[in-house]
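so i finally got all the pieces together for this one. its two components total, 531 residues if u count the protein bits. some of the lines might not be protein, just check the labels. i wanna see the whole assembly predicted at once instead of chain by chain like last time, that was a mess tbh
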Amino acid sequence: MHALDVSGLQKVYEGSGRRVEAVRDLTFTVERGELLCLVGPSGCGKTTLLKCVGGLLAPTAGRITLSGKPVSGPPPGMAFVFQEYGRSLFPWMRVGENVELPLRQKGLSRTRRRELVADALESVALSDAVAAYPWQLSGGMQQRVAIARALAYEPQVLLMDEPFAAVDAQTRADLEDLVRRLWRERGMTILFVTHDIDEAVYLGERVLVLSASPTVVQEQLTVDLPAERDQLHTRVDPRFAELRTHVYQQIQAAKRGVPQDGVTTSDTPPPR
Amino acid sequence: MRRLLLRVFYVVALPIVLVAVWWAASDGSTNPFWPPLRTILKTFPDVWTGERLRADVLPSLWRLAAGYALAAVAGIAIGTVVGSYRRVRAVCEPVLEFLRAIPPPVLVPVIMLFAGIGDTMRIVVIASGCVWPVLLNTVEGVRAVDPVMLETARSYGITGMARLRDLVLRSASPQIFAGLRQALSIGIILMVISEMFAAGDGIGFTIVQFQRSFAIPDMWTGILVLGLLGFLLSAAFRLVERRVLAWYHGLRASTRRSP
């Protein structure tokens, strides 16, 4: 069974005489323990897609199942990391309380909650900040708190919606490595949405290229880079350059609205 | 230490000047309605004895506290409902604006008709005036909850009472406190006014009694008591607000620092 199964997803916004088809027809799966990146031109309905998957928006058509169970509202097995970290953490709660709040809703015991909070904050190297308020931290640290909150929630699938779009380049590189490390250490299933091609290739085991809105899957490719990746070497690896060029061409084609070869079937370019 | 002294100086400088001006201007006044401040201050300890504090100030404070608390609870509760639902808001808003525009003192005779002339009437009068700023500010605060925070709460299954307690009311609390602050000064005014109608005790009643019996310096001491009371309540309010909204002041200071 797949961790996440999306089939025939369509989302149409209707309002005041205007009908906007944001997502036309999306079908893909996320395997258990996989890190899948979705990348597409800006404004291609990535956020809409992720909100549908997370049960925050009701799709117009199609089916989403999480470990075989259909998703009709936010399921307890999913955790969300939003782009707007500053508006996603509650400024009236300390870091520890922010991480703990969803666990209280789950009805976990006090000791179990404490364990999970301490463990999650340690994973993102923020154990010292447990009693700080989010606004006392830098942007990158705030996003790490949001990631810790998602970790402590112990989701089956972690959804990340352009989580690093609003931080500076150096922080962003650190956060990318953090996601890679957490994924490898914890064997998590991650669905990562981004508009950054390099980020998608650097992070993902598989990359799904989306078309411009109304969105379909333009292409999917497997990233055959070694599992051990680092900012210094991976980014100058010739294979990395090939893959990112390929994805870049696909995105350009997507913007022009020309699916290159077929709609969803193109394979990873053969290594030279 | 120096900075503390300087701050104390800033706080007390203007009151000292004003009192001095009052003292000098009224000294040697022979107008019976405008007695010298010296006379007023001499009268003060004779009028505001322990017995009078118990018999008049305490009942006033009790009515104010009860009316204010009633207004706070009702204002926050109704404001939350109105602020949460667009339909309810559309129906209620014109009525709320109308009710808010009625000056509460004119309601005193009306409220006397159904609430009698006892404490109930006075508490209802105070509450009916205090409720509006609390209610309208709560509506605005609840409406302005950040949509990303609401989505975060939804995605993590934070719903029902937890959503209300940990998100909606906390997020609206700066506006709610602004309303409570306005309500406090309205409450003091209405406390005095309600005690001027058919009352047997209270600060407002005492001041009117002195005026009617031409005990003018005594009347002036009553006005001083009201001023001091307002000042102390406002200081106490600020203390509570600083504690409850510490996060908000910190957040504002941190966003001012970074561009």
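Chain B is about 85% helix and 0% strand.
The interface with chain A takes residues 146, 148-149, 151-152, 154-159, 162, 166-167, 170-171, 173, 247-248, 250-251, 254-255 of chain B (CB under 8 Å).
anyway lmk what u think
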